[in-house]
Amino acid sequence: MERLRERLAIARRALKTLEELSLEKTVSDVVRDAAIQRFAYTFEAIWKAAQLYLREVEGMQLGSPKSVVRTSLQTGLLSEDQARLALSMADDRNLTAHTYNETLAKDIFSRLSRYVQLIDNWLAGMEEKQGIVRNE
Predict the structure, then answer these.
(1) Distance (Å, rounded) from C-alpha 74 to C-alpha 132?
(2) pLDDT-based confidence at 135, cuts 50/70/90?
(3) Are 66 and 50 in contact (CB under 8 A)?
(4) What is the model's pLDDT at position 136?
(5) Where do the domains of the chain lie, and which CATH numbers do they carry?
(6) Taking all residues of the chain, what is their mean pLDDT, rounded to a whole number?
(7) pLDDT surpasses 70 at 114
(8) Which residues contact 82 (CB under 8 A, 6 or more apart)?
(9) What are the helix and strand counts (H, E) for the chain?
(10) How far apart, in Å, are the Cα atoms of 1 and each of 8, 53, 81, 130?
(11) Start-to-end CA span in the chain (Å)
(12) Could you tell me if 35 and 27 are in contact, meaning their C-beta atoms sit under 8 angstroms apart?
């Protein structure tokens, strides 16, 4: 379980870096692109933390981000609305990894504040079940 605690801590730290940039309303292209990069690594951190949580706590072996999202819904870590948003978040993450498009970058950036809230809630659910107290 120590490995799980470390994964959750990594995801929490990644989220903090994303929060710094995602809440800005007016940003330069460089800041927007940095926020999208932070989104990509934060997404990786959260789905991998959830994957480990589901394996160690729920006994479920899953191999993809979307299967982790669906199983997080089934186990009560995510609500239906959150799971839908998480699946969209996975799609956005995939789009950022394979191409660069100015319009797409603006669209994804506009959704980051919702993703930050979702990731925070997802993490909080796992932390709570592990007895981890967050230091704000």
Answers:
(1) 22
(2) low
(3) no
(4) 56
(5) 2-129 (1.20.120.330)
(6) 93
(7) yes
(8) 73, 118, 121, 122
(9) 5, 0
(10) 11, 9, 29, 9
(11) 23
(12) yes
Residue whose token pair is 């979307």 = 66
Locate 15 and state its tokens.
């989220």
Residues with Cβ within 8 Å of 32's Cβ and at least 6 positions away in sequence, in order, are 105, 106, 109
Tokens 């967050």 correspond to what residue? 134
State the DSSP string of 13-75: HHHHHHHHHHT-SS--HHHHHHHHHHHHHHHHHHHHHHHHHHHHTT-----SHHHHHHHHHHT
Predicted pLDDT at 1: 79
